[in-house]
Amino acid sequence: MRAYVLEHYGGPEGARLMDVPAPMPGPSDILVKVRAAGLNPVDFKFRQGKLRVIHRPRLPFVLGNELAGEVIAVGGDVKRFKVGDRGFARVAKDRAGAFAEQACVDEADAAHMPQDLDFTAAAAVPLAGLTALQALRDELAVKPGQKVFISGGAGGVGTFAIQIAKWLGAHVTTTASKRGEALVRSLGCDEVIDYTSQSISEAGRRFDAGFDLIGGKTLDQMFEIMKPGTRIVSVGALPEPQTAIKDLGGRRALSALFWMISYGIRSRARRAGVSYRYLFMHPSGSDLAQLAELIERGILKVTVDKTYPLADIADALAYLEGGRAKGKVVVTMT
Length: 334
Ligand SMILES: NC(=O)c1ccc[n+]([C@@H]2O[C@H](COP(=O)([O-])OP(=O)(O)OC[C@H]3O[C@@H](n4cnc5c(N)ncnc54)[C@H](OP(=O)(O)O)[C@@H]3O)[C@@H](O)[C@H]2O)c1
Known about the structure:
Blueprint: E1 2-6, E2 15-19, E3 29-38, H1 41-48, E4 61-62, E5 66-74, E6 86-90, E7 102-106, E8 110-112, H2 119-123, H3 126-139, E9 147-151, H4 156-167, E10 171-175, H5 178-186, E11 191-193, E12 207-212, H6 216-225, E13 226-234, H7 241-247, H8 252-261, H9 263-272, E14 275-278, H10 285-296, E15 304-309, H11 313-321, E16 328-332
Parallel strand pairs: 9-10, 9-12, 10-11, 12-13, 13-14, 15-16
Antiparallel strand pairs: 1-2, 1-4, 3-5, 3-7, 3-16, 5-6, 6-8
The protein binds NADP nicotinamide-adenine-dinucleotide phosphate.
NADP nicotinamide-adenine-dinucleotide phosphate (NAP) binds at residues 40-42, 127-128, 131, 151-152, 154-158, 175-177, 179-180, 195, 213-214, 218, 235-236, 279-281, 320, 323-326.
């Protein structure tokens, strides 16, 4: 089968399309004929070797973290799927393999696709949708009437986050440039700060929960607009000790490393009276089923910016890496 394979870490030349053997499903796996796969910044960060401290699989390694397709075989222990079902999934991090004509997924990580959603839109949901759900519902525990600030609302995660925060009953403010303003407003965002011409600090110290997708100066400014005693969850800045303990299996050496690299951020958070948590999302078939239900009920819309054929996946990744995507970028298999 054709697959997009990482041969060495670094620039785009480290990965290429090639023929590889199709994967064999284990007892709890479904084998999926991939119809579409979503792209995420983690794909190029992984290719660049930026995640090697956390996860270092043996190369060559088939890239790709989320997919939608048809089930063509199931392992002996699989209960919820049968051949012919339409499924979608955020594939386990140590496994990946979504940029390929076929991929294996543990059934615990997969869900049935929403009715009436095509494969392209379904492939755009898992990673970004789960990130937004797990941050806003679980980590920030957003309640009706709260004021939520989301940095970077126009990208893959942000377009889901705005809608999920609205579904949870929040008043939502986000940052977007003029390029993204119409999109974030169409998703229900109440207030938009144009980050290219306005400072976030102008929003005033009035927010109950912060979800940061950008990091750096943006995160620093977010500390200034949170009410004392509130929390910021980031997926765009630096991991801290809780990340290693809660999200990465309690690895002590990683926890110490993350303590060091996040020292400055945690100090600034403490001075502002705000708590800081960096989240690594996790695959979850049950959370994905909840997203599917929200899509079926018309509460959650999927924003696909561009689609590319698998043959042009390098161009698709380069577009995403440019940092201007509005919603999601997806590759489709023929
Ligand atoms: N830890 C985790 O589990 C996890 C999970 C998912 C994602 N992430 C991380 O979260 C971040 C966001 O992911 P994504 O998929 O949403 O990325 P993305 O789709 O590539 O985001 C692109 C969008 O970001 C906007 N943007 C760029 N700079 C901005 C700024 N300074 N302020 C506001 N908006 C800005 C761009 O809008 P303009 O064109 O208007 O500038 C563009 O629409 C990435 O760093 C990703 O690696 C982490």
